[in-house]
Structure formats: C-alpha cells, structure tokens
Amino acid sequence: MAHFELNGSKEPFLIIQMQRGEKIFAESDSMLAMQDGIEIRGEARGGVMSSLGRAITSGENFFQQTLIATSDSVVMLSPSLPGDIKILNLQQSKGYFLNDYAFFAAEDSVKLEVRRNQNISSAIFGGDGFFVMYAHGKGQLAINGLGSIEEIELSSDSGDLIVDNGHLLAWEEGVHHQAQMPNRNSGGGFLSRAMQSVVSGEGIVMRLSGTGKIYIASRNLNSYRKFITTVATH
Prior knowledge:
234 residues; alpha+beta; Double-stranded beta-helix; 19 strands; 46% strand; globular
C-alpha cells in the first residue's frame, strides 16, 4: 500500500511513497514535485454525477487528480489552503463526514460519496446544505484545514461539544451534529437570538454528540475569505 507521511511542522507537504501499480487521488492541481514514474490524469472520479455532486456540495473541482505509479516512485503534494494536514487511517467499519474543502488526498481504496444530510437544521442553517461528503473504505485519507488542525476524541462521558461551523473539518461516523444558535439558552425568540448572533459575529455553531473523532481547524475559512475580500477592495 502507498505510504503517506508529512514533511514540515508548519504548513507541511504530503509525501507519498508509491509502489508500481498503486494509485492515489487528490484535489486538482495539488502535485508539487514527483519522481519520474508517476502518471497524472484528470478524472471525474466515480462518474459524472458523483463528480458533479461533489462540486455542488463541497465546492471541490469537478475533476480530481489521479496519480498512478508506473514504477516505484515518490510524489509530493501541496494543498491550496495555507494550513495543516492530517492523515486519517480509515477502517471498513467507520467512515468520516467531511466539511467543505476538507478533502485533500486519499488512497484509491477510499471511496468518496455524496450523502443526504439527515439533519434538517444543519442543512438549512449550518451551511452544510442538504448533502454532505462521506469518505469510507480501508486506507489513508488526508484532510486539509486553514491554520492548525486539532483532533478531539468525543465520548458519551465527555458530553456534547459545540464548534463554530467554520472551524469544523471532519467527524467520524457515530458523531451526531446539529446546527444551533450559540445563544440558544439566553432567552427570547428565534429572531431575537438570530439578531444577537449577527451582532456578536458568532453565526451558527454545531452541537456534536456521540462517540468518535472530530477534527477542527484553528482558522475559520469564511472569516478568512471576508478578510481577503476586505483587504483586496481597499
């Protein structure tokens, strides 16, 4: 199997050692450097409808890079977002749900699917939409986030965890998520709480419960976009 490893403690590269015949796939335009012996193809992975679904639901490119080793070789990948990378080892028993732009690269044995968001409040208010990305299978999956990435182990004993949706990257199957206002216990009606959220700048948060791993980024992608837009227009 291909071997994933990170090089660098700050905004690392992903280095993948591949044996002849192995395949990986990654976000478009992520190849930084490689040894001779790697063939690169742009593919609508999983077919046109799956690729279209990923593009609509997560903002990913319609095409992904597929890298095929024609001989034992090493390839170095770099993500579009300035930030951290985490390597997740997926097992057949459990998959991961991915927030927008979290996917970076994976072994060919990992499958990406578009699934219906079962949580209506998250679909309407949380920014996740009515569909969410689901990665499953057995193999290595690399995710990317703005800033640093922290792994949190959630259990029934630890209680619920509340995370700003802009910082949430991935959650293991078995973790339940629900969108809510950050000030839901402050009293008042829905419109009052919504106004308080707008004034405070907190927006929507996600209440996570159950058992499994959660990955959060130290920087908020939505806030970063607003900052870049503000700087560019001044």
